[in-house]
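Input C-alpha coordinates:
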Protein backbone atom coordinates (compact mmCIF):
# COMPACT_ATOMS: atom_id res chain seq x y z
CA UNK A 1 0.00 0.00 0.00
CA UNK A 2 2.82 2.35 0.91
CA UNK A 3 4.56 1.54 -2.35
CA UNK A 4 1.44 2.50 -4.27
CA UNK A 5 1.36 5.85 -2.48
CA UNK A 6 4.95 6.54 -3.46
CA UNK A 7 4.21 5.62 -7.03
CA UNK A 8 1.16 7.90 -7.12
CA UNK A 9 3.14 10.71 -5.47
CA UNK A 10 5.93 10.31 -8.02
CA UNK A 11 3.44 10.36 -10.85
CA UNK A 12 1.77 13.47 -9.43
CA UNK A 13 5.10 15.28 -9.09
CA UNK A 14 6.07 14.22 -12.61
CA UNK A 15 2.74 15.57 -13.84
CA UNK A 16 3.34 18.89 -12.11
CA UNK A 17 6.80 19.10 -13.67
CA UNK A 18 5.23 19.04 -17.14
CA UNK A 19 4.43 22.70 -16.46
CA UNK A 20 8.14 23.54 -16.15
CA UNK A 21 10.09 24.31 -19.33
CA UNK A 22 13.43 25.81 -20.29
CA UNK A 23 13.28 28.26 -23.20
CA UNK A 24 16.51 28.61 -25.20
CA UNK A 25 18.37 31.88 -25.92
CA UNK A 26 17.15 32.02 -29.53
CA UNK A 27 13.60 30.95 -28.78
CA UNK A 28 10.30 32.51 -27.87
CA UNK A 29 7.31 30.67 -26.50
CA UNK A 30 3.54 30.95 -26.53
CA UNK A 31 1.58 29.54 -23.58
CA UNK A 32 -2.05 28.64 -24.22
CA UNK A 33 -4.41 27.72 -21.37
CA UNK A 34 -7.42 25.81 -22.59
CA UNK A 35 -6.71 27.25 -26.06
CA UNK A 36 -6.36 30.89 -24.99
CA UNK A 37 -2.98 32.62 -25.11
CA UNK A 38 -1.99 33.64 -21.56
CA UNK A 39 1.76 34.32 -21.87
CA UNK A 40 4.63 34.79 -24.34
CA UNK A 41 7.74 34.11 -22.27
CA UNK A 42 11.25 34.78 -23.53
CA UNK A 43 14.48 32.83 -22.90
CA UNK A 44 14.80 31.32 -19.44
CA UNK A 45 12.92 29.02 -17.06
CA UNK A 46 9.15 28.98 -17.34
CA UNK A 47 6.91 27.53 -14.63
CA UNK A 48 3.27 27.12 -15.54
CA UNK A 49 0.41 24.72 -15.07
CA UNK A 50 0.90 21.07 -16.08
CA UNK A 51 0.06 19.40 -19.35
CA UNK A 52 -3.62 19.29 -20.21
CA UNK A 53 -4.15 22.75 -18.77
CA UNK A 54 -1.29 24.72 -20.31
CA UNK A 55 0.26 24.13 -23.71
CA UNK A 56 3.68 25.66 -24.43
CA UNK A 57 4.91 26.05 -28.01
CA UNK A 58 8.55 26.99 -28.59
CA UNK A 59 9.39 29.10 -31.66
CA UNK A 60 13.01 29.40 -32.92
CA UNK A 61 13.33 33.10 -33.79
CA UNK A 62 16.54 32.80 -35.85
CA UNK A 63 15.57 29.76 -37.91
CA UNK A 64 14.95 30.26 -41.63
CA UNK A 65 12.72 27.70 -43.29
CA UNK A 66 12.49 26.88 -46.99
CA UNK A 67 9.58 25.90 -49.20
CA UNK A 68 10.44 24.34 -52.57
CA UNK A 69 7.84 24.70 -55.29
CA UNK A 70 7.58 23.45 -58.86
CA UNK A 71 9.27 20.93 -61.09
CA UNK A 72 11.04 17.93 -59.56
CA UNK A 73 13.67 16.57 -62.03
CA UNK A 74 14.01 13.28 -60.17
CA UNK A 75 10.26 12.63 -59.92
CA UNK A 76 8.57 10.31 -62.43
CA UNK A 77 5.32 11.82 -63.61
CA UNK A 78 3.37 10.40 -66.56
CA UNK A 79 0.74 13.16 -66.56
CA UNK A 80 0.42 15.31 -69.72
CA UNK A 81 1.81 18.34 -67.86
CA UNK A 82 3.91 17.49 -64.77
CA UNK A 83 3.95 19.75 -61.73
CA UNK A 84 6.13 22.77 -62.33
CA UNK A 85 5.83 22.58 -66.11
CA UNK A 86 4.29 25.90 -67.10
CA UNK A 87 2.97 27.42 -70.32
CA UNK A 88 4.64 30.61 -71.57
CA UNK A 89 2.92 33.46 -73.34
CA UNK A 90 3.94 32.15 -76.76
CA UNK A 91 2.57 28.66 -76.06
CA UNK A 92 5.84 26.93 -75.11
CA UNK A 93 6.56 24.81 -72.05
CA UNK A 94 9.23 25.38 -69.42
CA UNK A 95 10.16 23.47 -66.28
CA UNK A 96 10.44 25.77 -63.26
CA UNK A 97 11.43 25.08 -59.67
CA UNK A 98 11.80 27.87 -57.10
CA UNK A 99 12.71 27.99 -53.42
CA UNK A 100 11.19 30.51 -51.01
CA UNK A 101 12.77 31.16 -47.60
CA UNK A 102 10.80 32.59 -44.69
CA UNK A 103 11.38 33.41 -41.03
CA UNK A 104 9.39 34.61 -38.03
CA UNK A 105 8.20 38.19 -38.47
CA UNK A 106 8.78 40.87 -35.85
CA UNK A 107 6.21 41.82 -33.24
CA UNK A 108 4.22 40.10 -30.49
CA UNK A 109 1.20 39.44 -32.70
CA UNK A 110 3.42 37.75 -35.32
CA UNK A 111 4.55 35.22 -32.71
CA UNK A 112 0.97 34.36 -31.79
CA UNK A 113 -0.11 34.13 -35.44
CA UNK A 114 2.84 31.88 -36.24
CA UNK A 115 1.92 29.41 -33.48
CA UNK A 116 -1.73 29.36 -34.50
CA UNK A 117 -0.99 28.88 -38.23
CA UNK A 118 2.17 26.79 -38.03
CA UNK A 119 0.67 23.71 -39.69
CA UNK A 120 -0.59 25.72 -42.68
CA UNK A 121 2.32 28.08 -43.40
CA UNK A 122 4.23 25.89 -45.87
CA UNK A 123 1.09 25.06 -47.84
CA UNK A 124 -0.03 28.70 -48.13
CA UNK A 125 3.42 29.93 -49.20
CA UNK A 126 3.77 27.09 -51.72
CA UNK A 127 0.38 27.84 -53.27
CA UNK A 128 1.02 31.58 -53.54
CA UNK A 129 4.53 31.07 -54.91
CA UNK A 130 3.15 28.76 -57.61
CA UNK A 131 0.60 31.42 -58.57
CA UNK A 132 3.25 34.15 -58.81
CA UNK A 133 5.54 32.01 -60.97
CA UNK A 134 2.69 30.92 -63.25
CA UNK A 135 1.57 34.53 -63.80
CA UNK A 136 5.10 35.68 -64.55
CA UNK A 137 5.78 32.86 -67.03
CA UNK A 138 2.42 33.27 -68.78
CA UNK A 139 3.14 36.92 -69.50
CA UNK A 140 6.45 36.34 -71.32
CA UNK A 141 7.87 34.49 -74.28
CA UNK A 142 9.93 31.37 -73.73
CA UNK A 143 13.13 33.23 -74.65
CA UNK A 144 12.42 35.94 -72.08
CA UNK A 145 11.64 33.35 -69.42
CA UNK A 146 14.82 31.34 -69.98
CA UNK A 147 17.09 34.37 -70.32
CA UNK A 148 15.66 36.62 -67.60
CA UNK A 149 14.12 34.16 -65.14
CA UNK A 150 17.13 33.73 -62.87
CA UNK A 151 17.54 37.50 -62.55
CA UNK A 152 13.93 38.72 -62.34
CA UNK A 153 11.97 35.95 -60.60
CA UNK A 154 13.63 36.00 -57.13
CA UNK A 155 12.89 39.64 -56.35
CA UNK A 156 9.38 39.34 -57.77
CA UNK A 157 8.69 36.28 -55.63
CA UNK A 158 9.80 38.05 -52.45
CA UNK A 159 7.55 41.05 -53.10
CA UNK A 160 4.49 39.28 -54.46
CA UNK A 161 4.41 36.29 -52.08
CA UNK A 162 4.79 38.59 -49.07
CA UNK A 163 1.91 40.71 -50.33
CA UNK A 164 -0.30 37.68 -51.00
CA UNK A 165 0.18 36.03 -47.59
CA UNK A 166 -0.60 39.15 -45.53
CA UNK A 167 -4.36 38.40 -45.29
CA UNK A 168 -3.63 34.93 -43.85
CA UNK A 169 -1.82 36.39 -40.79
CA UNK A 170 0.85 33.71 -40.78
CA UNK A 171 3.28 35.72 -38.67
CA UNK A 172 6.19 35.21 -41.09
CA UNK A 173 8.17 37.31 -43.53
CA UNK A 174 9.69 36.20 -46.84
CA UNK A 175 13.45 36.66 -46.57
CA UNK A 176 14.61 35.60 -50.02
CA UNK A 177 13.83 33.45 -53.04
CA UNK A 178 15.86 31.66 -55.69
CA UNK A 179 15.37 29.82 -58.95
CA UNK A 180 16.62 26.27 -58.50
CA UNK A 181 15.62 24.88 -61.90
CA UNK A 182 14.63 26.64 -65.13
CA UNK A 183 14.90 24.69 -68.38
CA UNK A 184 12.82 23.69 -71.39
CA UNK A 185 11.33 20.18 -71.43
CA UNK A 186 13.74 17.31 -72.05
CA UNK A 187 12.24 16.61 -75.49
CA UNK A 188 13.25 20.02 -76.87
CA UNK A 189 16.16 20.92 -74.61
CA UNK A 190 18.82 20.28 -77.26
CA UNK A 191 17.05 22.62 -79.70
CA UNK A 192 16.76 25.34 -77.07
CA UNK A 193 20.39 24.95 -76.09
CA UNK A 194 21.41 25.31 -79.75
CA UNK A 195 19.32 28.47 -80.04
CA UNK A 196 20.85 29.82 -76.84
CA UNK A 197 24.34 29.14 -78.15
CA UNK A 198 23.48 30.96 -81.37
CA UNK A 199 22.04 33.91 -79.45
CA UNK A 200 25.08 33.97 -77.19
CA UNK A 201 27.33 34.02 -80.25
CA UNK A 202 25.28 36.87 -81.73
CA UNK A 203 25.56 38.88 -78.52
CA UNK A 204 29.30 38.17 -78.41
CA UNK A 205 29.74 39.39 -81.98
CA UNK A 206 27.63 42.47 -81.25
CA UNK A 207 29.73 43.19 -78.18
CA UNK A 208 32.94 42.83 -80.14
CA UNK A 209 31.57 45.09 -82.90
CA UNK A 210 30.65 47.74 -80.34
CA UNK A 211 34.10 47.44 -78.78
CA UNK A 212 35.73 47.82 -82.20
CA UNK A 213 33.50 50.79 -82.95
CA UNK A 214 34.42 52.47 -79.69
CA UNK A 215 38.11 51.75 -80.30
CA UNK A 216 37.98 53.28 -83.76
CA UNK A 217 36.03 56.28 -82.53
CA UNK A 218 38.61 56.85 -79.82
CA UNK A 219 41.45 56.53 -82.37
CA UNK A 220 39.69 58.94 -84.75
CA UNK A 221 39.09 61.40 -81.92
CA UNK A 222 42.73 61.19 -80.90
CA UNK A 223 43.88 61.73 -84.51
CA UNK A 224 41.49 64.65 -84.91
CA UNK A 225 42.79 66.20 -81.71
CA UNK A 226 46.38 65.70 -82.86
CA UNK A 227 45.71 67.33 -86.23
CA UNK A 228 43.87 70.21 -84.60
CA UNK A 229 46.78 70.75 -82.21
CA UNK A 230 49.27 70.66 -85.08
CA UNK A 231 47.12 73.08 -87.12
CA UNK A 232 46.85 75.46 -84.17
CA UNK A 233 50.59 75.23 -83.58
CA UNK A 234 51.33 75.87 -87.28
CA UNK A 235 48.88 78.76 -87.32
CA UNK A 236 50.44 80.24 -84.19
CA UNK A 237 53.92 79.82 -85.72
CA UNK A 238 52.88 81.50 -88.99
CA UNK A 239 51.12 84.27 -87.13
CA UNK A 240 54.13 84.85 -84.90
CA UNK A 241 56.45 84.83 -87.92
CA UNK A 242 54.19 87.22 -89.86
CA UNK A 243 54.02 89.58 -86.91
CA UNK A 244 57.81 89.46 -86.56
CA UNK A 245 58.27 90.13 -90.28
CA UNK A 246 55.72 92.95 -90.19
CA UNK A 247 57.46 94.43 -87.17
CA UNK A 248 60.87 94.14 -88.89
CA UNK A 249 59.45 95.66 -92.07
CA UNK A 250 57.98 98.52 -90.07
CA UNK A 251 61.31 99.16 -88.42
CA UNK A 252 63.11 99.08 -91.78
CA UNK A 253 60.50 101.43 -93.27
CA UNK A 254 60.92 103.82 -90.39
CA UNK A 255 64.70 103.62 -90.82
CA UNK A 256 64.39 104.34 -94.56
CA UNK A 257 62.19 107.33 -93.85
CA UNK A 258 64.72 108.77 -91.43
CA UNK A 259 67.52 108.17 -93.94
CA UNK A 260 65.47 109.87 -96.69
CA UNK A 261 65.03 112.91 -94.53
CA UNK A 262 68.79 113.05 -94.09
CA UNK A 263 69.66 112.18 -97.74
CA UNK A 264 66.94 112.23 -100.45
CA UNK A 265 69.03 110.01 -102.79
CA UNK A 266 69.60 107.22 -100.27
CA UNK A 267 66.57 105.19 -101.39
CA UNK A 268 67.83 105.21 -105.00
CA UNK A 269 71.19 103.90 -103.82
CA UNK A 270 69.50 101.18 -101.78
CA UNK A 271 67.31 100.27 -104.76
CA UNK A 272 70.33 99.88 -107.08
CA UNK A 273 72.15 97.90 -104.43
CA UNK A 274 69.21 95.47 -104.13
CA UNK A 275 68.82 95.27 -107.91
CA UNK A 276 72.49 94.43 -108.19
CA UNK A 277 72.01 91.52 -105.81
CA UNK A 278 69.02 90.31 -107.82
CA UNK A 279 70.86 90.54 -111.12
CA UNK A 280 73.86 88.71 -109.72
CA UNK A 281 71.58 85.99 -108.43
CA UNK A 282 69.91 85.64 -111.83
CA UNK A 283 73.30 85.54 -113.53
CA UNK A 284 74.49 82.84 -111.13
CA UNK A 285 71.42 80.75 -112.01
CA UNK A 286 72.03 81.22 -115.75
CA UNK A 287 68.89 83.25 -116.37
CA UNK A 288 70.66 86.40 -117.78
CA UNK A 289 74.09 87.35 -119.10
CA UNK A 290 75.59 90.86 -119.16
CA UNK A 291 77.13 91.36 -122.59
CA UNK A 292 79.75 93.95 -121.65
CA UNK A 293 81.76 93.09 -124.77
CA UNK A 294 78.87 94.38 -126.91
CA UNK A 295 78.72 97.88 -125.53
CA UNK A 296 77.44 100.19 -128.19
CA UNK A 297 79.06 103.33 -129.48
CA UNK A 298 76.52 105.42 -127.63
CA UNK A 299 77.80 104.00 -124.35
CA UNK A 300 74.55 102.11 -123.48
CA UNK A 301 74.72 98.63 -121.82
CA UNK A 302 72.90 95.86 -123.69
CA UNK A 303 71.25 93.14 -121.57
CA UNK A 304 70.24 89.91 -123.31
CA UNK A 305 68.19 87.07 -121.84
CA UNK A 306 69.98 83.77 -122.29
CA UNK A 307 68.03 81.40 -124.55
CA UNK A 308 66.66 78.27 -122.82
CA UNK A 309 69.15 75.99 -124.56
CA UNK A 310 72.12 77.89 -123.19
CA UNK A 311 70.99 77.95 -119.54
CA UNK A 312 73.28 76.38 -117.01
Amino acid sequence: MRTLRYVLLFLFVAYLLTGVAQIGPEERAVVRRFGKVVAKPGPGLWIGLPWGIDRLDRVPTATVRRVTVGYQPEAIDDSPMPAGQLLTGDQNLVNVQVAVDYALAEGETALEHYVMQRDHIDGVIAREAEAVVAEWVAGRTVDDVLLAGNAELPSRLVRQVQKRIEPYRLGVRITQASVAYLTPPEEVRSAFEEVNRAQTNIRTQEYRARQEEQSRLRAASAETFRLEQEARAAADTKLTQARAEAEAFGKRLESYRRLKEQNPDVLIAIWWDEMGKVLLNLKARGRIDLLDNHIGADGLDITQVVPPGKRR
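Residues 65-184 form a domain with the Tetrahydropterin Synthase; Chain A fold (CATH 3.30.479.30). The two ends are 158 Å apart (CA to CA).
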